[in-house]
Amino acid sequence: MSAQHDIIIAEIVKLLQGGSAHISLRDALKGLPPSARGDKPAQLPYSIWQLVEHIRIAQWDMLQFSFDANHQSPKWPDEYWPTETAPVDEAAWQSSLKQIDDELDEFISLFKKADIYKPLPHGDGQSILREALQIADHTAYHISEIIVIRRLQGNY
């Protein structure tokens, strides 16, 4: 691989993990009181829990799509958004965060090994590069919503 390719890989991995201009999900959630996870400030459609779960579900879908030709995506939008506003318990919260971390690591491993420009054989033109950029963009967008909610709650 070329030095330019290595630079692109490193920069996209940094973007996926939260760096430079983007905060990571873990940093955005640092110090969040458990009681604030299910709070929906006035006029906002989602709680922090619903945003975290949406990030988890969407990232899982993009990871599965990236390597499994038989993957069936959840029904949009119903199956991408949880109906419950708060996690049932601490274990559910931690499980969701762990799945996000583990699957991001899995995606990054796949990304580093892939021909990032080659269209996926089971898609309609998508490449692993497109999936990486989509994961990064989607997650960053919802992390910013989490920060806004935390600011409205007065705990950021």
Figure out the total of helices: 5
- Percent of sequence in beta strands: under 5%
Name the structural class.
Answer: mainly alpha
Q: How many beta-strand elements? A: 0
What is the helix content? 55-70%
Which fold name is given in CATH as the topology? Four Helix Bundle (Hemerythrin (Met), subunit A)
Give the CATH architecture: Up-down Bundle
CATH homologous superfamily placement: dinb family like domain
The averaged pLDDT comes out at: 96
What pattern of helices and strands is seen along the backbone?
HHHHH
Number of domains: 1
Compact description:
The chain is mostly helical and 156 residues long.
Describe this structure in words.
The chain has 156 residues and is mainly α. It has one domain (3-153): dinb family like domain (Four Helix Bundle (Hemerythrin (Met), subunit A)). The chain is 58% helix and 0% strand. The protein is built from five helices and no strands. The termini are far apart.
List the helices and strands and how they pair.
Blueprint: H1 3-17, H2 25-29, H3 48-67, H4 90-113, H5 128-153
